Amino acid sequence: MASTGTTPHLIDQKEAEEIHHIDNYDDEKASAQEIHDAYVDIDHGYDQDFINRTTRKIDWRLIPPLIAMYCISSIDRKNVSLARAANKEAMHAELDLGSSRYNIITLLFFPPYIIFELPSQLGLRRFGPRYWLASAVFLWGLVTIGLGFSNNWVAMASMRALLGMFEACLFPGAAYLIACWYPRKQMARRSAVFYITAIAIGGLGNLLGYAISLMHGIAGLSGWRWIFIIEGILTVVIAIIGFVLIVDFPDRSTFLTPEEKEMIITRIDRDRGDSEADPMTKAKFISYMCEPKIWLFAVWFCVTTLGSYSMSYFLPRILRGMGFTDTMSQVLLAPPYVWAVVPALAHAYFADKYRNMRAWMILSGCLQSILGTILYSQLPEHLKAGRYAGTFLAVGAANGNVGLIISWAQCSIRNQSKRGYTSALIVAFGGIGGILASLLFMDKESKQGYPTGVWSVVGLNAFQSVTVIGLRFFFAWRNKLADRGKVVIEGDAKFRYQL
């Protein structure tokens, strides 16, 4: 805790004494509302320019490497659909793809992805983000290269399972790492920038995949094989760069000055009191498992990723069903993902700036997802532009809600062990969303526009809309009880839910 007025980044001695009073607030003498009001200003006592300068320093060291890693992750997990769209005949012939084997290949990524979420969080803390995350990216890069040399569909399905195991480390690890570095009022924007920038660039990967497929015949390899080989090599390169650039947790960081490090830890402690790591114990694990709100966030994430994975895996087929050629389908994949940046960042900005808007921003995404899905699937065939516009809404809404759900979940809890558990559980349910996408968007229904998958997305987003509103008002009710001193939220009298 900084407490001297002579330190350059602090304001005068009188205000420094005031913040010392806030940090040592007498909970027994003060009302719950007074404690809450005293606790709200996490920046008190620090010069705002110093805070902004340090935050930008963290942003540039933390976020870009994570974006690069998740960008190549989103490309590698969906390049099977790009390879199939680019050289369907060659791929089907060489791998003996028939009946539902393609669905099996896409599906087998997810069981290990789900199973290894929680163990991956334990490894992240023990070995540190640099070694843990970079090693995972490096290993799945090698697996991606191996996919290019698959000689039958069983080999490809097996390597897709390995890909899921290694990729399980990245997303929950990145979400956990971001939550450990920022106070709650800055989480949604960073989570959104991390995720949606990677997805938008990954959308341009569709064009890259198409360009690589033109190497068809070079060295006697089909174009679909070159997609895996080239993108796998790129993954290995990004892993090496990530090993150099990724930063550790705040309490173990080395790129900040002592004053900057102290300020970051102090703000996080004032915001939620969990800057220091606490070990995961059996009792904690069981208590976390019994919290309904965490499971609800996880179910929402499943619904959201059902929409995003269905677009990733089946949008090329959907576009062809609109009457576009194979080549145009590849080209038209990118714009909806670039557009997704707009709603994602706009929603995240309002969620952070007006911290009682988090639920309404998620609700907005749900409604846009419903509207977009209905437009692209139900409009008459001759309204091609309207149907294509629906894909923009569907892609933007589903991918935009990813960062919002993760950040609201992280804003609603305390303790680092709980953050690790929450990140892992939520992202694991994202894997379940991927399984549902593979099962509900059935190849046999492709000519009919995937009615089972489409109406599942619509119905589940309607369910999510209702439960988002319900949780929002439940949190508001709990906050009022805490203000009256009748309950303590998350084990801290100062903590309030953000709505």
From TrEMBL:
Residues 62-482 form the Major facilitator superfamily (MFS) profile domain. It is found in: Membrane. It holds the Pfam family MFS_1. PROSITE patterns: MFS. The chain crosses the membrane at residues 101-119, 131-149, 161-181, 193-212, 224-247, 294-315, 327-350, 357-376, 388-409, 421-442, 454-475. One of its GO terms (molecular function) is transmembrane transporter activity. It is a multi-pass membrane protein. The keyword Membrane applies. Keywords: Membrane, Transmembrane, Transmembrane helix, Transport. GO terms for cellular component: membrane. This is Major facilitator superfamily (MFS) profile domain-containing protein. It comes from Cutaneotrichosporon cavernicola.
